[in-house]
């Protein structure tokens, strides 16, 4: 799967990009028709500790799934986003297979 990582208001390091890539690749186990993923990592300029936002957009044929999570770390936000997307992809796969 093609994963594009976009960093907003900061520069992203290689370790974080690799983590995002690995986590998004795991989603293919649940639904093999995933075309690509766009991951937007943002830092909000607030005094709040939970100022890291991960917005993940998954492209599948005929649909797009968008999840946005805000946490203390990017890793945590990406992990929560991936879990939500995993549930969405499983639901979609079940829905499609029930129509066949």
Automatic annotation (TrEMBL):
InterPro entries: RHF-like, RHF/RaiA. Pfam families: Ribosomal_S30AE. Gene3D superfamilies: Ribosome hibernation promotion factor-like (3.30.160.100). It comes from the Bacteria. This is Ribosome-associated translation inhibitor RaiA. The lineage of its organism: Bacteria, Pseudomonadati, Bacteroidota, Flavobacteriia, Flavobacteriales.
């Amino acid at each position: 799967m093609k994963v594009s990582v976009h960093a907003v208001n900061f520069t992203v390091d290689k370790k974080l990009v690799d983590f995002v890539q690995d986590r998004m690749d795991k989603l293919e186990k649940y639904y093999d028709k995933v075309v690509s993923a766009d991951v937007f990592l943002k830092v909000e300029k607030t005094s709040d500790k939970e100022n890291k936002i991960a917005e993940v957009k998954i492209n599948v044929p005929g649909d797009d799934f968008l999840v946005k999570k805000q946490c203390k770390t990017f890793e945590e936000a990406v992990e929560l986003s991936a879990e939500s997307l995993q549930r969405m992809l499983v639901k979609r796969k079940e829905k499609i297979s029930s129509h066949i």
